[in-house]
């Protein structure tokens, strides 16, 4: 009997080990992140995360054979950000270290628990001889217009150094507050910047020929995003109200007015050239890059707004103040990039000829003067983050599909042909991936939303099923591999679960981007009623209604905001969701209420915050849960999981925990990423199979 038990145990162990090996192999798929190009050269550079080894690669036309430039060959949890390239493609600049996806200002992180402290540092790299120069402590570097120096931020001050390291780093000037949004004038003689000073901020100009800072239109406001005119004689910036004053309401929509200001450098007097309409859709945009103010063409400025109900590009005539909407339609525009002369704007948008392109992304272009726009790419791929390079002769961008990870892609403007790069980095691990099916579901309150359904290739009855909930919540999941690293790896897990016989439903719930202003800003959502949870419940019930799904084996999982909604699902509907994995979610929203913000409806807001908290509903929590959290989380406080853990303990809920010391919200140590994903799969295998 003992021999038989041992044989069975070893057999089961070998199966489990093989499954974990397969998942680890899939998670080892290289992630290509930021891609940049040289404005005047046929060269591109990009970052690669290969099992935690984060390095920079480059490729040069016409062959575009890739070449590894750096040798950061250990899983040390140090990310590479602010990648940029000189116009001739001979130098690369970047920052290394920190967590730049945090909700607060980036600080050094030590996910690997090194005995020595880590740093955020600036590096320059000579491409031709691959010589790496460590400039020193700093972040957010930009290249000087003459291509010989790097300017960056260090402890809130502006510093500079030569690219080749010959001139030591030095502080450029001293000022009160913390600098940000640094931008050199076209001739490289003046630097515009934002000076953050607590509740307000100013726009300042440093000049090499002056011993004093010039302040542009200082006022009782929060000024940001300075933009030089092409001739360097004027400057534009965004103005918003500074914090302070009475609060009208904490439970109604908070319209945030904003305007575009313009000033002559000669006198520094600022004048309003545009004021956003006073309506909900025209509030200061909550999208990547926010207003995305640019002044690349002498006649026009451009910016982004939700004014039409969708995030689109607008043109502002500097002389007449006339405003024209350039891109139009029921789709989202993002990832803007400009031609050298400012005449054209590249963008990514979830639109195209196919009926399901709203769940993809393609590359488009708009002519600023005429307003004529066209989509340059089409098909079943997900294409984002375009940019011009090689004197505008080519476009680079990231490209993926349902069974191909993110690659750099080059599109030649002359012959309109595309070349896929860096394919040699990838194996055939994803060849067995299923093609997600687009589905539509309507919640109990009538809100219709979309989701992607991953069905096992070998269809059988009584499938266990899972609802996957993305974070954000300002995100959109696609019909393929995501370009954001967090969701790049979650996509792998969803596909792996489908391989293991799970039906997986990835939900694009209300509050997400990609579906217009009203969908992103629904009533009674978030901490004011969590109406978005109705979509999660509807998704679970939809799975229960599928003929090949075992309705008693539906689970739920997600991270960040997805962790929050996972906890809501388990707390409020253990009758539907029989197990869940809650990864660094918010659980007690009442604790996030600020007593100093005492508006007339403060008590109502506090009540709604508590009603919107999973911690409030633990009395009805019956299903088993795995709670995962890293204790250096800069997005969701570790105490949020402690709060839930203590409450569930008293209710004797079947609960498991995985605590990751020193790692943050984005699992920057690859070893920890694998540990989290394997623990998630293992938990569902034990609870739902």
TrEMBL record:
Organism of provenance: Sphingobacterium paucimobilis HER1398
Matches recorded under InterPro entries: 6-blade_b-propeller_TolB-like (IPR011042), AB_hydrolase_fold (IPR029058), Pept_S9_AS (IPR002471), Peptidase_S9_cat (IPR001375), Peptidase_S9B_N (IPR002469), WD40 (IPR011659)
Gene Ontology BP terms: proteolysis
Its biological purpose: This enzyme catalyzes the hydrolysis of the N-terminal peptide bond of an N-acetylated peptide to generate an N-acetylated amino acid and a peptide with a free N-terminus. It preferentially cleaves off Ac-Ala, Ac-Met and Ac-Ser. Also, involved in the degradation of oxidized and glycated proteins.
Keyword Acetylation: yes
Record-linked Pfam families: DPPIV_N, PD40, Peptidase_S9
PROSITE patterns the record matches: PRO_ENDOPEP_SER
Residues covered by the Dipeptidylpeptidase IV N-terminal domain: 278-383
Gene3D superfamilies associated with the record: alpha/beta hydrolase (3.40.50.1820), TolB, C-terminal domain (2.120.10.30)
Domain Peptidase S9 prolyl oligopeptidase catalytic: 495-689
Protein name: Acyl-peptide hydrolase
Keywords, in A-Z order: Acetylation, Hydrolase, Protease, Serine protease
Keyword Hydrolase attached: yes
Leader sequence segment: none
GO MF term (any one): serine-type endopeptidase activity
